[in-house]
Amino acid sequence: MAKYYIIWVEGISWKRGEKVCYIHPKRGIQYTLKMMNAMRVKECDLATVKYDLMRQGLRLKGVDFVSTSYAPPGTIYPRKKC
Length: 82
Prior knowledge:
This protein is 12% helix and 33% strand.
């Protein structure tokens, strides 16, 4: 089974808190509260995503990468739109 990561940014619970929906090079990071809209990142793309997040000004100290085995269609990094 494939392993993906959801990028949890803020909130008490990763299920209800803010998660990254999309990373746009010029418009920045878009967030979502909906689990079905959260972007999934494959293990091999984690380093690239971390670099992209830091370039957008997000400090990785408060960011958690929650593992999951489920990725709805259209949520796997790189995403076209949110």
